[in-house]
UniProtKB/TrEMBL annotation:
Annotated region (Disordered), positions in chain: 102-121
Species this protein is from: Litoreibacter halocynthiae
Protein name: GIY-YIG domain-containing protein
Length: 189
């Protein structure tokens, strides 16, 4: 079962309802689908990871949303009120909750019931992993710290070339030169 239940890529901030900051979406049924008259879902109460982006699709900031009442909608709204508000124009998001299970009311009406997924794995672990992965790969300019990998252990790539010293190369070169001279002598006779 996939941890990510839904996502949206490169959504425009200027299309968000600014009065109440509701973020609406719809899912096409086929390639020829046209946008419906009414939105299919709203993602304000979604738990997940979001990416703030500029017009050039550069990742500027990666954050997580989902602990308590701090879901994607309120987190994005907060980014319209901080020092970086003029630096991002688009956002992408990756949700951990099926949109059909999201509450329809206000933030105050939301319960803490969706703090764990069906597989009983705490959402906070998945959020930390997703955020850490995106920060590590994307290296966004506005993230001041790295991701929280929890108990995961980082491995570095090993190369046999790193253990070769110049002294060893010099010695091998000297041996090869001697062999070459012997071969040349044999061929010259």
């Amino acid at each position: 079962m996939s941890s990510i239940k839904c996502f949206g890529l490169f959504w425009r901030r200027d299309l968000v309802e600014l009065d109440d900051f509701w973020i609406y979406g719809w899912r096409p049924k086929s390639l020829s689908s046209t946008e419906p008259d009414e939105p299919e879902t709203q993602i304000n109460f979604q738990s997940g990871v979001y990416v703030l982006q500029n017009d050039q699709r550069e990742n500027l900031y990666i954050g997580q949303a989902g602990r308590g009442k701090s879901k994607i909608g309120p987190r994005l709204w907060a980014h319209t009120r901080n020092n970086n508000r003029d630096r991002w124009s688009h956002f992408s998001w990756f949700g951990l909750t099926d949109p059909k299970r999201l509450p329809k009311g206000s933030v105050d009406d939301q319960s803490e019931a969706d703090e764990t997924e069906d597989n009983a794995r705490p959402i906070s672990f998945a959020l930390n992993e997703l955020e850490a992965l995106l920060i590590s790969v994307g290296e966004p300019a506005l993230n001041k710290r790295g991701g929280d990998w929890g108990d995961a252990k980082e491995y570095l790539q090993w190369s046999h070339y790193e253990d070769v010293h110049l002294r060893e190369l010099y010695s091998q070169n000297k041996k090869l030169k001697k062999r070459l001279k012997r071969i040349e002598k044999r061929l010259g006779q």
